[in-house]
Amino acid sequence: MKKMWRLFSVLMVATLLIGMLAACSGATGGSSSVSVGIVLPTKDEPRWVQDEQRFKDALADSEYTTEILFSQGSSAKEKENVETLLNKGIDVLIIAPHDGAAAGSAVEAAKKEGVTVIAYDRLITETDAVDYYVTFDSVAVGAAQGQYLIDNVEGSNVPLYLYAGASSDNNAFLFFQGAWEVLQPKIADGTFVIANSSEAVALKDKNELTRDELGKILGQVTTNWDPSEAINKAQTHLTAAGANLKGDIAILAPNDGTARSIADVYGSDSDISSYVISGQDAEKASIQYIIDGKQSMTVFKDVRTLVADAIGMAIDILDGKTPSTTGSYNNGKVDVKAKQTNVIVVDQENVKKELIDSGYYEASEFTGL
């Protein structure tokens, strides 16, 4: 009898220990849950790696936790990333979609779990599952690129080579729209001659283009945000161009990665006397190109400000407050409340002031300043 009682006692103690361990395990799991899940499109572009670090810095002193995952240019991976974060108990999802339309199913899964969704930098389209949008003014980015080309060419009949981002990215349409609305009057009056898009030539007398019309042009001049594809397109266009489409030219390049690739191609052609080329994102490599005179400008989108806006909005939500917004964007399904961040044009004249003196980069990272 004593032996049975002793065995019963041992079993009771073991059961209690197991219960305590399970409780401890549950507490540990709770403390390691994630408050804010962040999904970025790829690690292959410096811009997004830079954003990753800014997000980490922004939440370093916060009581809230975050996890950042990359989709590596795959909508399937993006959805998997969202599901991973949902399983970790996130309350807020910040997502820069690889493909604005394809991301709809991922964010709809988040909304079903009661998670607040913030589209970051790129709008998620054709769904009502987006609560907020934090963005730079993408139309203004394109307008700044177009205006820079206008302000820095001379004469008339200047060959204009057009390039755009990926057709799967809503921002690529907005960038091109902004540039087109500024450039089109100068195309119509003969300042510029479109050199590499028959669709753009067919629409040269129309200032406001429909989404379908923009899509037709993008279909011919997209780089898919890929520097290698930009090189191939630039080489193809140069091969097809006659002497009348060379000499002093202007190039609308959508971002810094493609701008450097395109500039290298055009710069190596002896029939190109000079070129003015746009860019955006203020990537380190392009800042050096600007200093060296190989890229004309970049549109500086201060990621510090955009990240601060996104994290500030997330913390407001976690604290039970309503985030402040400055406007809205229609995503094809609903008007999404948005907070916009201003952009700055950077070229040789102000590169030191805007990027070095502001503390964004260190002077030691460049030569020839």
Automatic annotation (TrEMBL):
Claim: Signal is one of the keywords in the record: yes
Species annotation: Sutcliffiella cohnii
Gene Ontology MF terms: carbohydrate binding
Pfam families: Peripla_BP_4 (PF13407)
Compartments, record wording: Cell envelope
Name this protein carries in UniProt: Sugar ABC transporter substrate-binding protein
Superkingdom, taxonomy of origin: Bacteria
Primary residence: other
Keywords, sorted A to Z: Signal
Signal peptide (from-to): 1-22
SUPFAM superfamilies in the cross-refs: Periplasmic binding protein-like I
Gene3D superfamilies: 3.40.50.2300
Gene Ontology cellular component list: outer membrane-bounded periplasmic space
UniProt keyword Cell division present: no
Residue ranges constituting the Periplasmic binding protein domain according to the UniProt record: 36-321
